[in-house]
Structures are given as structure tokens and as C-alpha cells.
């Protein structure tokens, strides 16, 4: 257990790229097939947010790159987190439970959850957050090589979906591995810390949620439409709010519950749209929905490539 390992949440400064580590894929998955990049570091120093391509795939003050699994079942089966570069383990934590974060919960500075921090020399470090409880395989002081297994993707700390949050720092500055010098002017950077830079797409999902009827766009955007609980006799509607969809893109909406699959619906976009939402639902059965936990999954797909996934939980009681 460690006491000093925490997530760092501030916008990137301009780092020195010389002598930086070159990074490999930090988890054992295939982007666009079994995982996606959900968010990038925030490059906007103001109260706004922007990813390195001046897109929407970040959050204000977000310090790292989020590699998201497609399902909770993947997490249960085990997806390995691996060292992105050679280095020496500085600190680990492996004591936080795997459970969705409840807003307002005091994590006592352990927002990163179960984690590993590696020193790469020249002031560079990498931090791997939200690992599965009991999965950490390395110890402080241990030398590790790129590709070595550190643990597994989990649901620990400040998160409500299984993903790996990877932060790169040099000294006190966060380094965006996709654009370390921040001089890309919204285009593809000339320099990167990746050995093979993951492909960027500007399309994604703002959110997924459950409601009792097909909502208005304004209520989707404000969050008013979102329901955390439903009664057994209310309709169950899953919706996904997306951005930069192209004609031919597919949005899949799937809901499961205590008795298995509730519905599985596919919507295809017939035109390019900067912002859009799609919804699908069912009326309750004659005896009402079984009480218990339900989970919706919204997936944005372009051709054979999965671009984004969001989950939405609701309880029937």
C-alpha cells in the first residue's frame, strides 16, 4: 500500500521532448475491436476543454489518456495492463475495491484507485490508474521492461466504467503523449511519444442514459432526462448522445437486466451530423419489470471499427 500515489488533474504544460520514453500500448487489447480511447489529456489551460486535435474527446483538467473496455464482462475475464516503456516501479497501490464511484464519496486522495507508478529517467514518469483489486504484480523498486504485465484493468477509484487511465509526467508537468510539444495547431503532430501512434477520430459519445420516455434534445443535453431509478410499470428507454457522426455510422443500443436481454436495437445514420442522439425502449410487461439492476450499453460504430462506448445503469424498484 502507498500513501503518495494520486491522480494528477491539471492541464498540460509545454514539456521538453528530449530524452522522453517511447511508449507502447499500455494494455492487452485491440483499439477499435476490444477497446477504445474514451478521453485524451485536456490541452486547454482555461476552464474549457480540448483534446490535442482541438476536438471534444477530453474533460476539463483531464490529465491522461483513458483506454476503455467495451464491457464489464471483459473486466471480469481479465484484461492485462502492461508497462508502456522500460523503467523502475516507484509506487503501487492495491487496496481499493472494484465498484462504480458514488458522487460525493471521499476517496481520501486515492482517486486513481489501485495503481502503479513507474520512473523512466530524465524526470519522466507514467501512472496507471483504476487497476483491479488484487491484480498488481509488481513492487516498488522493481525494474520492469516495456510489455511487462503490471496488473489488470479494474473499476477502482473515481470511475464508473472499466478503463485504464494513463498519465505521463515530466517533473510537475503533465505530458500529452500524442502532442508533447503542443505545437500541432489542431493538426496531426510532427512529434509523438508513441512508437505506433493510435489513430485519432473526432467522433464519440457524450453520454448514455436511461429515461422513461424518448426525451427532448434539450433534456438530453442538460441531463434532465437521465433517470437513476424506474418503477416496474414505467417504460424503459435507453439513449445515446453522440458527436461528429458520419452518414452510415451505426449506433447500437442494448439493455440487459436481471432476466437477461431486454432489447437490442441498431440505428444507422443517414446523414453527417455534428451532434445527435438516438433512443430506443420498451413498454413494461403486463406484470411489470422485474426489480433489480439494469445496464444499458451504447456503441458508436463506423464500418468495422468501434469508435466509442458508454454505459448507463438504472435500478427498478
Textual characterization of the structure:
- The chain has helices spanning 72-77, 217-222, and strands at 35-39, 65-69, 80-82, 87-93, 114-121, 124-131, 143-144, 149-152, 163-170, 173-175, 204-211, 229-230, 236-245, 250-257, 260-268, 273-282, 292-302, 305-316.
- The protein is mainly beta.
- It folds into two domains: 35-175, Distorted Sandwich (Glucose Permease (Domain IIA)); 204-316, Immunoglobulins (Immunoglobulin-like), CATH 2.60.40.10.
- A hairpin with a 2-residue loop joins β17 (292-302) and β18.
Query: What's the CATH H-level homologous superfamily of the largest domain?
Result: Glucose Permease (Domain IIA)
Label the overall shape: globular
Q: Structural class of the secondary elements?
A: mainly beta
Oligomer: single chain
CATH class of the largest domain: Mainly Beta
Task: Let me know the average pLDDT.
Answer: 92
Question: Mind describing the biggest β-sheet?
Answer: 8 strands, antiparallel
Following the backbone from N to C, one meets helices and strands in this order, namely: EEHEEEEEEEEEHEEEEEEE
- What is the third-level CATH name, the topology of the largest domain? Glucose Permease (Domain IIA)
Number of domains: 2
Amino acid at each position: 500500500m502507498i500513501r503518495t500515489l494520486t491522480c494528477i488533474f491539471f492541464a498540460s504544460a509545454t514539456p521538453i521532448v528530449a530524452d522522453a520514453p517511447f511508449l507502447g500500448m499500455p494494455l492487452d487489447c485491440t483499439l477499435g475491436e476490444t477497446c477504445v480511447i474514451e478521453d485524451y489529456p485536456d490541452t486547454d489551460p482555461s476552464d474549457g476543454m480540448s483534446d490535442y486535435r482541438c476536438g471534444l474527446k477530453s474533460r476539463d483538467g483531464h490529465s491522461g489518456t483513458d483506454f476503455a473496455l467495451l464491457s464489464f464482462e471483459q473486466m471480469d475475464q481479465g484484461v492485462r495492463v502492461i508497462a508502456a516503456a522500460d523503467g523502475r516501479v516507484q509506487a503501487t497501490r492495491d487496496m481499493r475495491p472494484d465498484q462504480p464511484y458514488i458522487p460525493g464519496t471521499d476517496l481520501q486522495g486515492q482517486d486513481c484507485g489501485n495503481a502503479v507508478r513507474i520512473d523512466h529517467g530524465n524526470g519522466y514518469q507514467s501512472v496507471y490508474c483504476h487497476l483491479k483489486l488484487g491484480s498488481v504484480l509488481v513492487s516498488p523498486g522493481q525494474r520492469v521492461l516495456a510489455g511487462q504485465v503490471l496488473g489488470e484493468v479494474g473499476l477502482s477509484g473515481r470511475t464508473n466504467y472499466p478503463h485504464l487511465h494513463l498519465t505521463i509526467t515530466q517533473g510537475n508537468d503533465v505530458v500529452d503523449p500524442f502532442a508533447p510539444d503542443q505545437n500541432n495547431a489542431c493538426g496531426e503532430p510532427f512529434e509523438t511519444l508513441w512508437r505506433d501512434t493510435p489513430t485519432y477520430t473526432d467522433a464519440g459519445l457524450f453520454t448514455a442514459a436511461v429515461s422513461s420516455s424518448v426525451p427532448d434534445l434539450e433534456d438530453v443535453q442538460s441531463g434532465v432526462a437521465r433517470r437513476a431509478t424506474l418503477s416496474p410499470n414505467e417504460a424503459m428507454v435507453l439513449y445515446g448522445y453522440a458527436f461528429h457522426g458520419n452518414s452510415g455510422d451505426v449506433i447500437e443500443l442494448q439493455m440487459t437486466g436481471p432476466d437477461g436481454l431486454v432489447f437490442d436495437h441498431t440505428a444507422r445514420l443517414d446523414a453527417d451530423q455534428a451532434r445527435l442522439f438516438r433512443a430506443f425502449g420498451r413498454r413494461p410487461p403486463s406484470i411489470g419489470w422485474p426489480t433489480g439492476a439494469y445496464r444499458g450499453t451504447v456503441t458508436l460504430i463506423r464500418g468495422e471499427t468501434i469508435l466509442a462506448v458508454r454505459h448507463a445503469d438504472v435500478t427498478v424498484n
